[in-house]
Amino acid sequence: MSVLSLTCPALHRGPNQILPALALDFAPGGMIGVTGPNGSGKSTLLRAIAGLGPETVGLRQNGQPLAREAVSLLPQNFTIRSSLSVLDCVLLGQRKRLGLRVPPALITEARALLDGLGLADLADRPMNRLSGGQQQRVLIAQRLFAKPRLLLLDEPTSALDLHHQLAALSLLQTHARRSGTVVIAALHDLTLAARFCDRLLVLGDGRICADGPAEDALAPATVEACWNIRPEYLKDRDNRLVVIPHLPA
Ligand code: ADP
Ligand code: MG
Asked: Which domains, ranges and CATH numbers included, belong to the chain?
């Protein structure tokens, strides 16, 4: 498996340029965090990469253009009114492989993903009778089940409690490493981003302010300038970065 290359023209929305043109390479199996304050362009960038914007974004791997079906996006805002069961919702992730009868192996695979996200007991529950956090976890399972080469997640932990934030990001990280899928997730929590991502893109001031491992990308000058906070840095028991935000004096 080889590097996934992205070329993106400048992104304009309304009268403004949101981000300049970008060319980025992603190692296979990488977990990349996109972070930055409100309105810095995280969703605009992820949606453009997924082909949902007016721009043409180039994606290549192994010297070939990446097929549209190989890219999957979990959007920031979702409301599910469908009464489809949780298991069926996950199975829809591979709707092209589903015939009149769903192969048992696919059902086993979907159930394993539900189990990994703590949803095994809810497999037969209608989607519209789940909490927002439960729905978000089902949608993560559905996107993983689809086995994209590039998985884009816009604030995938926004509705999740502390346990499920850790479980979901850990599952995504393991999936990326095992399958070679490139996972790019917009995240607000800098400590979580530092803990699970190999690389962080920090957006702010209409550009990518930093791109690298958390220890470099979350340098005090970057964090202060982008978020208008004073960061305090600690190390957790595994020597990973913890960022505590304080309001400026
Ligand atoms: P983030 O996800 O980082 O919070 P967004 O990508 O949603 O930020 O938005 C980036 C900027 O683009 C914001 O200033 C937002 O108001 C603006 N924007 C987003 N979509 C549109 C649109 N369709 N028309 C005009 N402005 C937009
Ligand atoms: Mg957003």
From this structure: 4-77+147-246 (3.40.50.300)
